[in-house]
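Page 42, continued from yesterday. The earlier attempt failed because a stray header line got pasted into the input along with the sequence. Redoing it now with the clean sequence only.
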Amino acid sequence: MQSKEFDRWAKVREQGMLRYVLLRGMLCYGLPLFLIMTYVIPHPRLTTAQSVFLWWALAGAGYGIAMWKVQERRFRKVAARS
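This time it went through. Structure tokens are written below.
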């Protein structure tokens, strides 16, 4: 992790995990995924409500939580060396 990345992540983590998951996971990842999987490549057996839950909520939150954990591990590794 470069010092620029370290500083940027320090600012992001001050805002908290919930905000990160909601903004980066659900909004920036889950919403585009939902739109693509619902309107561009629709599943023949899923309703729009099921697609919202599956693609937007679950996938977005899962992605956000996973990325938070990866970044935290990288951040703590660098912070421990300092």
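Notes: The chain has one domain: 3-81.
Reminder to self: strip header lines before submitting.
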